[in-house]
């Protein structure tokens, strides 16, 4: 896991633990594409936590990625932030067409229409939204504070099940698009 946000939440999380189930490194230099590309040769999967801006660092991260998952919350503010992200991704896709981008709804409040509202809004811009979404659940916040993964903290929770579906769908999304290109 690459913590590319100077806020350093991933590193803080790792520091709470005796050992980590995967490597966590901090890389925050503006031009990290080459570092990320070299680094990824030693791993099957590299997850990068990007900063909440569309600056040079983010551009470099997107350019080094295969799949960009953009978390979007059912609130106006994060929607605006995503608009800048989408423009940036589209610009990079003009050079690297194979980069995929998908929105993932986070902090949905079950039983409200807010989740479907944001889905319609994002889709109306012709962008993909993952079918599975993540609800607002205290278990997510707790596990972060406790330095645990959700799977360790509450193995049988709804949060755990929800995340498993999201990850599976992200893998399928990536596989499907990749196959489409090669067939
Ligand atoms: N689905 C969720 N349910 C409950 N709490 C959540 C959920 N997602 C995030 N949080 C909490 O919200 C806070 C911010 O989350 P997170 O760091 O993931 O947001 P972020 O968008 O990456 O923030 P930043 O833009 O500052 O990097 C954390 O305390 C986290 O535990
Ligand atoms: Mg963040």
Structural overview:
This protein has about 180 residues and is mainly α. The protein has a single domain, classed as Rossmann fold (3-Layer(aba) Sandwich), CATH 3.40.50.300. About 50% of the residues lie in helices and about 10% in strands. It has helices at about 10-15, 35-40, 55-65, 75-95, 115-125, 140-145, 150-155, 160-180; strands spanning about 1-5, 25, 50, 65-70, 100-105. Magnesium ion binds next to loops.
SSE series = EHEHEHEHEHHHH
- Helices and strands: which structural class? mainly alpha
- Fraction of residues in β-strands: 5-15%
**CATH topology value:** Rossmann fold
Can you count the helices? 8
Name the CATH architecture.
3-Layer(aba) Sandwich
The ligands bound in this entry are: adenosine-5'-triphosphate, magnesium ion
Give the low-pLDDT segments: none
Report helical residue fraction: 40-55%
The outline comes out as globular
CATH homologous superfamily (4th level) name: P-loop containing nucleotide triphosphate hydrolases
Map the helices and strands.
Layout: E1 2-3, H1 9-15, E2 25-26, H2 33-40, E3 48-49, H3 56-63, E4 67-72, H4 76-95, E5 100-105, H5 114-124, H6 138-145, H7 150-153, H8 158-182
Parallel strand pairs: 1-2, 1-3, 4-5
This protein binds adenosine-5'-triphosphate (ATP) and magnesium ion.
Name the features.
single chain; 183 residues; mainly alpha; two-stranded parallel ribbon; binds adenosine-5'-triphosphate; binds magnesium ion
């Amino acid at each position: 896991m690459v913590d590319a946000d100077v806020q350093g939440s991933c590193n803080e999380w790792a520091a709470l633990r005796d050992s980590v189930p995967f490597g966590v490194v901090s890389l925050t230099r503006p031009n990290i594409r080459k570092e990320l590309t070299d680094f990824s040769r030693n791993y099957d999967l590299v997850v990068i936590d990007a900063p909440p801006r569309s600056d040079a660092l983010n551009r470099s991260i997107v350019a080094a990625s295969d799949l960009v998952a953009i978390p979007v919350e059912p609130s106006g503010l994060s929607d605006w932030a995503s608009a800048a992200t989408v423009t940036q991704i589209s610009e990079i896709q003009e050079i690297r067409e194979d980069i995929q981008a998908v929105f993932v709804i986070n902090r949905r409040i079950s039983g409200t229409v807010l989740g479907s509202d944001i889905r319609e809004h994002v889709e109306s811009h012709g962008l993909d939204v993952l079918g599975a979404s993540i609800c607002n659940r205290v278990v997510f916040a707790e596990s972060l504070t406790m330095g645990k993964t959700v799977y360790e903290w509450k193995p049988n929770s709804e949060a755990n099940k929800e995340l498993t579906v999201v990850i599976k769908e992200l893998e399928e999304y990536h596989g499907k698009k990749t196959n489409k290109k090669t067939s």
